[in-house]
Amino acid sequence: MASALYQSIEILSRDKGIEPEVVVGAVEDAIALATRKYYKTQENMRGEMDKETGEIRAYVFKTVVEGPEQLEDETNQMTLEAARELAPEVEVGGELRFYKDTSPLGRIAAQMAKQVIFQKVREAERDTVFLEYNHRAGEVLTATVKRLEPMDVIFDLGKAEARMPKREQSRLEQFAVGERVRVVLLRVDRAAKGPQVIVSRAAPALVQNLFQSEVPEIYDGTVSIRAIAREAGERTKIAVMSRDKDVDPVGACVGMKGMRVQSIIRELRGEKIDIIEYSEEITTFAEKALQPAKVSRVSITDLAEKQIEVIVDDTQLSLAIGKKGQNVRLAAKLLQWKIDIKSEEEKRQEVEQQMHAMGGGPTTPVEQITELGETILEKLIAAGITTVEELADMTPEQLEEVPGIGEKTVEKISVAVRHYFGQYEEGEERPVVAAPVVAETASDAEAETSATEEDSMAKTPEELLAEQAGTGEAVEATDVSTEDIEAAEDAASDSDAFSDADTREELIEMNNDAVDELVDQSQETSDEGPDTDGHDRG
After folding, report:
1. 235 CB-near residues (< 8 Å, 6+ apart)
2. CB of 208 within 8 A of CB of 182?
């Protein structure tokens, strides 16, 4: 029958989860250390415990060598001749024991033995915990909340304690002491105070285990989980695939009226879960991964770097990106590809810039628009608008922001730009209304041009119309010319910087434009209109 001491050792071993031999070895080492300390000797010493009686003894042992030549340590060795005087049957390499009296050992020796026993038991316990959980990384365990710390949660796994750091917790979850929850074993850390078991509630393996528990098709292998991307407490995307064409993988995971997925959501404290169907085609898989946003098209931009470009409608861009980029970030984790997401408008602008760069960029000076006066050109150049292409790309609102440019001037600039590009498209130059007669000298030509302009200012619109068109429709010309003159006056009044000379030039140009228009109308009337007798010409 075992002694009372050995029975206590067995109880301690069961509580700590270690073998009784480990505790017995710790007791023997402790008594040997205390005895050596008491006798102040450097001899080799061991302890011995009798399981039946519970007696603990300490002894010194010496190794037997053949002769004096082999004797290196007289304290722990002895020759064969001297050993046979004590034990005739001893051989070379054997040991002789010399027991020490342990009865004089006092309280200090007992305290030292106690510390040694506790240290050995603690080391054995650490080794047991490490060997028990080190190979179980990724496994889902059921644990009980033992205590709550300011940042961490401590769980009781049965044989050891586990710690869940703040980064491995879900922001939606709150725990109570004694509550039983499922956790994922991440790793076992060897620390100075012993191995620490680290568990998590934020790992994707927890969601996978929950689906295996709730969905029979996943448990039996009909439906497989191909990829999971999770942000704990926010959203999880899970891609599933069916090995049976008659089984809908998404419907199997959702369950009738969403019963299966709702139970998982309750376990995760309300975390959102997106279940999508897995596809081997990366473009199709990307479209499904970005749900609920609708994708216009997907293209692979870099196969080696695993990068794709996703184009969505302008109204779907914010939905595809998600709150703080969460939707596209989870989709990238699910695909294991880099995703560059753009709207239709951004893609169009990018293509236009590329085509613009290939064409060499804008190079036509804004001074080429001859219909604009020098004052308007100076204002545009002062505002940094130096090319025709840049001016054509500006909106009316942007033009009105330029100092000295009003609403009437904006209309004039728009017409001038349109006429300018019309010349290049048709390959024709704008005709000059009041072209000066070729003179013998440059000064005569300038004088004649000035006189022509003064005469035009002095004449009424009816007289100008009669001279240019040679028709009698002066009443109609009066109406048109008056409107054009008023428009020119409004354009001049948009800025105080216009001089009187500029105003006169603009009035002349606008009047000439009206005359040209009426001449064209008159010619069309004379060429295409009916004869006086009512018959069509031709």
Report:
1. 271, 272, 273, 274, 326, 327, 330
2. no
Q: Which CATH superfamily is domain 279-359 in?
A: K homology (KH) domain (3.30.300.20)
Q: Token match 């017409």: residue?
A: 415
| Nearest of 441, 310, 430, 307 to residue 372 by alpha carbon | 430
Distance of alpha carbon 166 from alpha carbon 199, whole angstroms: 11
pLDDT at residue number 154? 92
Q: 0.85 cut: is pTM over it?
A: no
The pLDDT tens digits for 354-377 are 777 765 555 678 788 878 888 888
Give pLDDT tens digits for 173-222: 888 999 999 999 998 887 767 778 999 999 999 999 999 989 999 998 89
3-state secondary structure 4-51: HHHHHHHHHHHHHCCCHHHHHHHHHHHHHHHHHHHHCCCCCEEEEECC
Q: What is the DSSP string of 297-347?
A: EEEEEETTTTEEEEEE-GGGHHHHH-GGGHHHHHHHHHHTSEEEEEEHHHH
Give the CATH fold of the 366-426 domain: DNA polymerase; domain 1 (1.10.150)
Give the domain 4-128 fold: N Utilization Substance Protein A; Chain:P; domain 4 (3.30.1480)
Q: How far is CA 358 from the centre of its chain?
A: 32
Q: How far apart are CA 27 and CA 477, in angstroms?
A: 126
Judge whether 241 and 285 are in contact, CB under 8 Å: no
Dihedral of CA atoms 247, 253, 259, 265 in degrees, nearest 10, equals 180
**Which residues have C-beta within 8 Å of that of residue 236, sequence separation ≥ 6?**
204, 207, 228, 229, 230, 268, 271, 272, 273, 274, 330
Is 337 in contact with 305 (CB distance < 8 Å)? no
Which of 24-38, 205-219, 275-289, 337-351 shows the lowest mean pLDDT across its residues? 24-38
- Specify the DSSP class assigned to residue 473: -
Token pair in block for residue 378: 């100076």
Cα 461 to Cα 254, 399, 437, 473, 520: the distances in Å are: 82, 32, 22, 11, 16
Percentage helix, strand, coil, to 5, in the chain?
Answer: 50, 20, 30
* Residue corresponding to tokens 């961490």: 152
Which fold, 137-200? OB fold (Dihydrolipoamide Acetyltransferase, E2P) (2.40.50)
Strand-strand pairing, 235-242 and 223-231: antiparallel
Task: Check whether 507 has a pLDDT greater than 60.
Answer: no
Produce one character per residue of 146-161: b if its CB has 16 or more CB atoms within 10 Å, e if not: eeeeeeebbbebeebb
